[in-house]
Amino acid sequence: MTYKEGILGIPKQFEYRPEVIGKDKIRPFKKIIVLGMGGSRLAGDVLNMVKPELDIHIHSDYDLPLLDAETLRNSLIIANSYSGNTVEPISGAKMAIERGLNLVIITTGGELLTVAQEKQVPHVLLPHTELPPRMMLGHDLMAMATLVGFDIGELTLCQRIDAGVLKSEGSQIAQQIGSAIPLIYTSERLNQLGYIWKIILNETAKIPAFHNKLPEADHNEIAGFQKTQIGQFHAIFLENRLEHRIGQNMELTIELLEKNNIPVSETILKGDSLSEQIVSSIILAHWVALELATINNIEPLAILEIEDFKKKLQS
């Protein structure tokens, strides 16, 4: 499957209905902890934006987060690795098993599936494809939402997104970026969306990208652009028109950046629900990254540096 086909297929992923194997072993919980790296942490990030009261703790590190023993005992710990061979969540899953904690595994296979089967840990076996985790967000979201008790009804509405319609805007933004380094800005509420854009641009277009949130960036980062030369950076603002006060921050920040010769692209989140807006924006990020990869004759699916790095960690 090509990268383009993968983008067009993202909305269809929300038809997926995961089976939780060993569901009866999952104990009641008060907190949610997700162990995940790269594309395998994104489902937790999206759920945090859509429903902040879930207060999902994302742990992108080795072992378990440094929380007190009682909090860990009262948590649902989700070890999430698409390949099942990522060393950081594996280390946390094994530690959770040793401590008898409330663990669930989401994966397509690998060592994590072996651990789940041998230790009889509740798990979801995701559909396996040749696409990377960052492109399989729909499957992962449906699995995680099911585990944490989130009503998947809102997520299923993402099936009606027309991914192809977003392609032209993505191409336009990519052309505007050119050879510059993207700086992605969001509101505080959508901070994780900026991070997802960064991940997609890093892994697909193979370029540096950075993100920050407003209003915080207006209290520090804008001071760093006074001597910036044109062509070094290109700012991308992901705007949700419902956040009126942040809208003013964005307008003033854009004015300041343009005054300092930093070009700006603005994109309005599209969709009737916040879930649709976020997923549509993620699809747009994929189109931007694919166009940049095409312009620079880069293979968008391959992440050889990351795979090589993972192998060295496992050796």
Give a concise summary:
The protein folds into two domains: 156 residues, Glucose-6-phosphate isomerase like protein, domain 1 (Rossmann fold), CATH 3.40.50.10490; 135 residues, Glucose-6-phosphate isomerase like protein, domain 1 (Rossmann fold). The relative contact order is 0.15.
Account of the protein in words:
The protein is of the alpha/beta class and 315 residues long. The chain folds into two domains: 3-158, Rossmann fold (3-Layer(aba) Sandwich), CATH 3.40.50; 161-295, Rossmann fold. It is 42% helix and 16% strand. It has helices at 3-8, 42-50, 69-73, 87-98, 110-118, 137-148, 153-156, 167-177, 191-205, 244-259, 274-295, 304-314; strands spanning 20-21, 31-35, 57-59, 75-81, 103-107, 123-125, 181-187, 210-214, 233-239, 264-268. Helix 2 (42-50) links the parallel strand 2 (31-35) and strand 3. The two termini are 30 Å apart. The relative contact order is 0.15.
Helix fraction, binned, reads 40-55%
The outline comes out as globular
Q: Count of helices?
A: 12
Structural class: alpha/beta
- N- and C-termini, Cα separation: 30 Å
Uncertain runs:
none
Tally the beta strands. Answer: 10
Overall pLDDT confidence: 92
**Strand arrangement in the largest pleated sheet:** 1-6-5-4-2-3
Query: What's the architecture of the largest domain in CATH terms?
Result: 3-Layer(aba) Sandwich
The CATH topology of the largest domain is given as Rossmann fold
- Quaternary state of the chains: single chain
Largest sheet: 6 strands, mixed
Within CATH, the superfamily of the largest domain carries the name: Glucose-6-phosphate isomerase like protein, domain 1
